[in-house]
Amino acid sequence: MKKQESNKIILKASAGTGKTYRLSLEYIYNLLKNIDFKNIVVVTFTKKATAEIKERIFDFLYQVAFEKSKGIELKKNLKEIYNLSEDDFDKEKLQNIYFEMLKNKEDIRIYTIDSFTNRIFKQAIAPYFEISSFETLDSENSDFYEKIFKKIMDNENYYKKFEFLIEEVGEKKEIKNYVKVIEELVEFQKKYIIAKDFELKKEKKDNQKKVLEVFDFLTPLQEIYSEVKIFSEEKGKNISECFNDKLFEIFDQIKKESENSSEKKIEIVVENLEKLLDSKIKNYYNGKFIRKKELTETLQELQKNFLDKFSKYILKNKVYPFHNKLKEFCEFLYDLVRREKISSKKFTHDDISIYTYEFIFYKNLKFIENNKFTQDFFEIIGGNIDTIMVDEFQDTSILQWKILKLIMDCAKNIICVGDEKQSIYGWRDGEKELFENLDEIVDGSKVETLKKSYRSYKAVIENVNKIYCDYDEKNNWNYEKVDYKSEDAEYQKGYFEFEINELENKKSPTEKRIFKNIIQMIENKEIKNLGKSCIIAGKNKYLSEIASELNAHNIPYTLKSNKSILEHSAVNPIYRLIKYFLYNNFQYLLEFLRSDLIGCLNSHVKYILENKNIIEIFMKNSKEEDFTLFLENFDFNFDFEKNKNENTKNINIKRIEKREREKEREEEKEKKEEIKEEIKDEKIEKKYEIEDKEKDKEIKIKKEELLKYKKINLIERNGFLFSDVLSKIKKLKKLSENLNSKTKKENFSLEVIKDFEITNFYSTNSDIKNIFEFFNILKSHTDLFDFINYIEEKKEDIKQFGSEDKNAINLMTVHKSKGLEFDTVFYYKCKRTSKSSRKETSKIKTFIQFDQNFEKVTEFLVTLKKYEKLILRDEKYKKIRELEEEKEKIEEINRDYVALTRAKKNLILLFDIKKSGEKYCDKLTEKLIEKYKDCLYLNESENYSNGEIYEEIKEIKKIKNMKETTILDLKKILPYFSDNIAKNDRSSSKINLEKEFKRKKGLAMHYYFEHILTDVENEKKVATSAIFSRYGNMIGKNNIFEMIERMEKFIEKNLEIYNPKYKVYNEFEIYDDEKMEKRIIDRINIDEKNKKIYIFDYKTGYEPEKNEKYKEQIENYKRILSKKVGKSYEIITQILEV
User: Fold this and answer.
1) Which of the four pLDDT bands, split at 50, 70 and 90, describes residue 313?
2) How confident is the model at residue 651, as a pLDDT?
């Protein structure tokens, strides 16, 4: 095929309509267009999606290039979609591309959006920062912001720049509030970097007289006072009673000022701004007394007039100047932050995006000319980009778009796939309007829509269509009906149900909760296949409630996690302890002691901090291993004050110096005694007596202080003794100093687990697996330093284990469920108010607006929360905020839509919702009642069902008691750490390792033969590439070569098996109806002419055909297959020794 003209496609794909399939086809089409795979970039948003697309591309290319079973359908679709002919498919060329891609996987450019930006940063920007390696963080911790704040406070010049914020925030005693402001401003940088060039309209500063002419907000306030005063005199009441009790003082102060002191009056109003804007104060007057309609209307109009004029004054004289000052400060702050991050070599994903966008425009780097990337830039990041494909485009932020747009402007082909209905990452700056307007933004692009779901069954699709058609046209939420696989009889089935429970006015322990229906359905065997079922909820707190209920009924569940293993509740405290052993950083020790594992309280922490030096002496220098005995024998004459901050290595020197001073003192005393009778100086003797008494008293106090631990020795939370914990830490610290053998590492690991009873406290399958994996990683490294360096570098890749119980129900939030599918979905929703449940704690408020193409910033304002209400009286800022609120409402609709479209066969909605008046405070609930009102009227209840629950037939193992299935005591983990394993060179761990290696070789062998059908010579090439790709690193190249040599000899000896006359099925799946299990047969040859079926089973080892277990296995295959095909075929079995 000749190279085609540029192709720009915006692909709108509703949930389940096969966007990954289509994206993979686009990749194959680009290969057919003679575009080098090295010049194709695919960007998506999750590692899971990246892996899925890569796997699909390899599979599709293999199927088409080697004309495998799925290749026919793939070619048909490629021809239909892209108007191709048979001549466009060059089999040999595609095979060569396949081999090339297998050999050069590192050149395949399929990334997450973060890893793509990270790559640009690493190759193009980091060298400018003079750093070659760096650590990537998900987010900064509070320590970083405190460090920045401290730098500002410790430097006089920095402080002067920050001083205006201290005045404006006005919470001088609360340091944490200023640290929070620093944190918010650093978070704000991703918006600031885009909007910083926007300039507010400059206006001349008016004098006070001019201010009052233009913004005369004092007059309406004074008129309110006059009206209320007249009313109070008429009614014979005190004027203070007729005002809102929180505001009278303000009006009174203004009244007391002279007529000419307008400046002072303005000052009073501005100082009391927050009181005058208090949302709890509806009226400035007291509504209990002032009820006359005419007067209340007059007062309300005056109040509105005041607020309108006051808001204009505040905007011009406070907000705009603050905005400009803050911009100046931000420039300084971001420079300080950047220097700190470069110094530490630690960057968040946001930092990487910010610095990438900021510095690619830097003229000295010469990355951009005429608003396009230069050739130098492309060479640095790995080569030209002819085609760029972006998946899940609706989740792209404006900052990410700015970087992608620069690349798209250089690419010939653009494919953007997304669904604005699934945009649920607004809190992470995802901008769905980008995708909605993309066809107008990308010149020459065409829009295609995928309208057929390949995921969901009829009952699910039809009810989702019914709910969402005409759902919310007012808020511009558009939905087009989706078709299901109507041609497939299987997809005609399915089940839909919803039930709504009205919550009580006040939350109570006895109120009905609808999610308990799930328990009932599982116990009644309505839902059996738990492993393919999922409970989705909006928040983790609801999942926790459901998990508790599942626990109470002994129902297994899995809470999936994308978190690092270091964040696991069982692993994190152990990791902190090990970091303390390595770095001697007291902070890590405190974090370990405060963890849930140990459970130290504030009283313990206070004791530790007050006696830090003594505890450090115990840990580092003392030979005594028991903390109690150490304190009993401790030298309380030790001078703590003078040595408080000294290195403990100097303790003995200091003590010697102390003894020398005491000796000098004794000598001086003796001299004084000798001349005592001559000078009769009793004062000196008295002085020493007082000193000795004071010293004794001081030692006694210190001893009492040190022994205070006895009062708090029992750590009630977990039953440990505080002194025992410290003693165990000292013992483990000593063990950690010499871990130069596998034996010592295993013994150390076991001691940690036993000493702190870790497997008693963390005892589920998931906990045990994570603890085991953590120590397994430790065991594979030479020492703690090597281990910590490795695990810090790889922490994002080493994920927590779930329970992985095949018949455990999945629990996850809507965000975690995105991109997944389940046979059965329970969507649980709980709402008590229609208002957003998010707590608004930010002190910095921003208003930002872009043009339709997101090229220019049309409005930009940054201010403080205290000014927000007044700012919102300005129409342009009010509109910006209304648009943001509208986006939040749409995002809630999107979250519901995402949850509902995870279901393949059965969709069950269970809602606990409170009513507000006659209506429920949830849009989806109201829509269900509206759309199904006829059915609900007939049922006389707010529940509905349609269809029958449908699940695959498979063996469902009996759910055991949770104590049997999840509680693993120490005995279950002991085999891993046992002395036999640790001390015997020919140990069971070695045997297990050998078994695992042998198993991997067996898998590799089967994988090789999986690629051999009948075209032996060509397929051997494919099989060789495949086995090296998957098992090369795992088994080793030399071992692979030996295996290939052996397998090729086997093929030569058994060429009849690979005769083209046979119809061949490798890795053939077959279901055993008797045992209700799936079986996989290595190879089946069908001889249609002679009506014979050959079952072949590949085995290694000596004379496997004599092995009774193998013989029984292959006869079992024959039994299953004979039931499927009947007597029309003769079935022959053969065990093949490879």
Assistant:
1) very high
2) 36
Residue with the two structure tokens 């720049």: 161
Q: Provide mean pLDDT across the span 392-408.
A: 93
Q: Is 59 exposed, middle or buried (0-12, 13-18, 19+ CB in 10 A)?
A: middle
Which is nearest to 706 in space by CA: 599, 614, 579? 614
653 has pLDDT over 60: no
User: How far, CA to CA in Å, does 659 sit from each of 637, 638, 652?
Assistant: 10, 10, 11
Contact 353, 190 (CB under 8 A): yes
Residue 407, both tokens: 């690349």
Least confident of 796-810, 990-1004, 1025-1039: 990-1004
Q: Mean pLDDT throughout 1085-1108?
A: 88
- CB distance 868 to 844 below 8 Å: no
pLDDT classification of 959: cutoffs 50, 70, 90 = very low
Whether the CB-CB separation of 111 and 42 falls below 8 Å is answered with yes
DSSP 8-state code for residue 270: H
Judging by DSSP bridges, how do beta strands 40-44 and 109-112 pair with one another?
Answer: parallel
Helix (H) or strand (E) holding 1098: strand 1092-1099
Closest CA to 722 of 603, 547, 550: 603
Between helices 91-103 and 19-32, what is the axis angle to 10°?
Answer: 110
Query: How far is C-alpha 918 from the chain's CA centre?
Result: 39
**C-alpha 772 chain-centroid distance:** 23
In this prediction, what percent of the chain has a pLDDT beyond 90? Answer: 48
Q: What is the largest CA-CA distance in the chain?
A: 135
Name the H helices within 978-1075. 979-983, 988-1010, 1016-1035, 1037-1053
Angstrom distance (rounded) from CA 116 to CA 42? 9
Distance CA 782, CA 742 (A): 9
Residue 214 has phi, psi (to 5 degrees) of: -85, -40
Side-chain-side CA neighbours of residue 996 (13 Å) = 7
* Contact residues for 548 (Cβ-Cβ < 8 A; gap 6+): none
Tokens of 692: 């000795």
Of 1073, 596, 577, the closest CA to residue 784 belongs to 577
Of 412, 615, 447, whose CA–CA distance to 6 is shortest? 412
What is the C-alpha to C-alpha distance for residues 810 and 534, in angstroms, rounded to an integer? 4
pLDDT band at residue 644, thresholds of 50, 70 and 90? Answer: very low
Q: What percent of the chain has pLDDT over 70?
A: 84
Q: Which of 803, 311, 239, 891 is nearest to 559 (CA)?
A: 803
Q: What is the pLDDT, as a whole number, of residue 764? A: 65
Residue 8 makes CB contacts below 8 A (sequence gap 6+) with 413, 414, 415, 442, 443, 444, 445, 446
Q: List, in order, residues 6 or more apart from 702 with CB less than 8 Å away.
A: 636, 640
Strand 903-913 with 495-502, pairing: parallel
CA distance 1059 to 799: 46
Q: Which residues contact 452 (CB under 8 A, 6 or more apart)?
A: 17, 18, 482, 483, 484, 485
pLDDT at 9: 95
Within 675-794, residue ranges assigned H as helices are 676-679, 682-706, 722-736, 742-755, 758-761, 765-779, 784-794
DSSP state, residue 564: B
Q: What is the pLDDT of residue 740?
A: 78
Are the beta carbons of 513 and 829 closer than 8 angstroms?
no
Question: Tell me, what's the pLDDT at 1095?
Answer: 93
Rg from Cα positions in the chain: 37
Q: Hunting for tokens 């059996």 — which residue is that?
A: 528
Q: Are strands 720-721 and 387-390 parallel, antiparallel or unpaired?
A: unpaired
Reported as a pLDDT band with limits 50, 70 and 90, residue 643 is very low
- Confidence band for 648, pLDDT divided at 50, 70 and 90: very low
The Cα 209–Cα 741 span in angstroms is 84
Residue type, position 1118, single letter: K
Mean pLDDT of the 36-60 span: 92
